Amino acid sequence: MATVATEPFEGQKPGTSGLRKKAKEFRRPGYTENFVQSIFDAIGTADLTQSTLVVGGDGRYYMRDALRIIVQMAAANKVGRVVVGKNGILSTPAVSTLIRKRKSLGGIILTASHNPGGPDGDFGIKYNTGNGGPAPEGITKAIFEKTKSIKEYRICKEVQVRLLQKDWIMTLYTVKAEFDCIGEQTFLGGQFVLEIVDSITDYAALMKEIFDFDLLRTFLSGGKFRILVDAMNGVMGPYASRIFCEELGAPAESVIRNVPLEDFGGGHPDPNLTYAADLVAVLKKGEHDFGAAFDGDGDRNMILGRGGFFVNPSDSLAVIAAHNQSIPYFKQTGMKGMARSMPTSGAIDRVAKEDHFSLYEVPTGWKFFGNLMDAGKLSLCGEESFGTGSDHVREKDGLWAVLAWLTILATSKQSVEQVVNSHWTKYGRNFFTRYDYEGVESVGANEMMEKLRTIVANPADVIGKEFAGKDDNRRYTLSACDDFRYEDPIDKSITEKQGVRFIFSDGSRIVFRLSGTGTGGATIRLYIDSFESDPTRQMEDAQVALRPLIDIALEISQLQKHTGRTEPTVIT
Fold first, then answer.
1. 82, 93, 184, 420: which sits with the fewest CB atoms below 10 Å from its CB?
2. Domains of the chain
3. Among residues 51, 113, 199, 557, which one is catalytic?
């Protein structure tokens, strides 16, 4: 056991999903060690000898190096057992599954989610607590405080992971690389156990409890309903191949880019219309009935129908909510409540109101759903950023969402487009779009947000004011504006400055946020949401329908003036 003197690094503040920086930052001597030790110090390490810690990641560059460091530091900090996925691979929802199944102390996830990978890409470390969900703000603040005053870290480099695998043909034992062979290895006289597990088995077993695999196998194995799933060379490739192809009988070619790569094959593992354009192009050919894509760590998803029909994530959440009784898990547990992040469209609100379910609006960040789930008040939730999930784990779950959609299609006997159109006919349509301005200079982005906060701090000056787009005669009267503030109904904690909102008399909304998931500069997110009950207008293109509100948003924010940007990086 070694105690190594160190000094703090500036800026090790966890965001909405852990600490994310460029990989080269984590490679600086002591940088990873400092942050990991701060996690152990923040959660308390007086006696962890009977505790289990789950560790895994999405396979991106630097993951194995970080994994080795964490295992050695866990041993030095007297953690009794560390559970690691084979090859270090564990999707984010799979980590949550293992934490909950093993009743673990918590888990450390090595991912930067949908951010690019490789030597010049991003890396991240996130701590999840014993409920399987992201650490709440009280813990992330404690971790940050520890990073600012850390003087030493503890590590045990004697823990060298080498597992033997027998070659039954040559009748010899060969040394396998780190984390590549399932089994246990004991160190420090039996005080520390490293357990390598199959990355998929426990997660797949949970999916079988939630969904009717016999129904889905009949639906997918006949060859009449063709699916195409793009894992984007992220962590979800092995999971998708195992579940869709081996378990449910879809042809092997139904899953593409299914090998996790350190740089995601040079791609950007973000399942949206911009970064998954190749998948969209294939679906537009009309040869597949259903398409889906996942992000780097497997918690996000994109749903497509034949012809490239795009299901907005807000609509995807609302459709699953409306069809919740098609899913065996919800039939068994009942629907305790529904929730969405504040920027997500109000589509699910209409389902909750129609079907008499409680509806919660929370800040962006999956950790805000956890308290509601643990209190038994929430079953289904989602974010407009392609995240959907339920209380089976405490993370959003991309593969779960795809299985939910396939279940809806199998039971309704409708296409993706028909399901969505039927939903709009019954509940009305919330037109929704998100504009992402990535890599914006932080100074200009913060100036813009402060100007907006100044406006909403004096609502009397703008309430009742009428706005109109550049080339449209539709006019919108501002009825409310604020900087979203959330009081947790369970622990009464307060979270402030979660997005500047402008709400109009017809219910339309404009929301501005700075994202907490980027690593370079700032990312401004602009959200537009407008409800349409008239069936004759529901088939209009969302960008056309929302054009006046987009113009109004750019006018109010003076975004181009503050950032120099004339176009967003990504439009959802």
1. 184
2. 2-175 (3.40.120.10), 202-427 (3.40.120.10), 429-571 (3.30.310.50)
3. 113
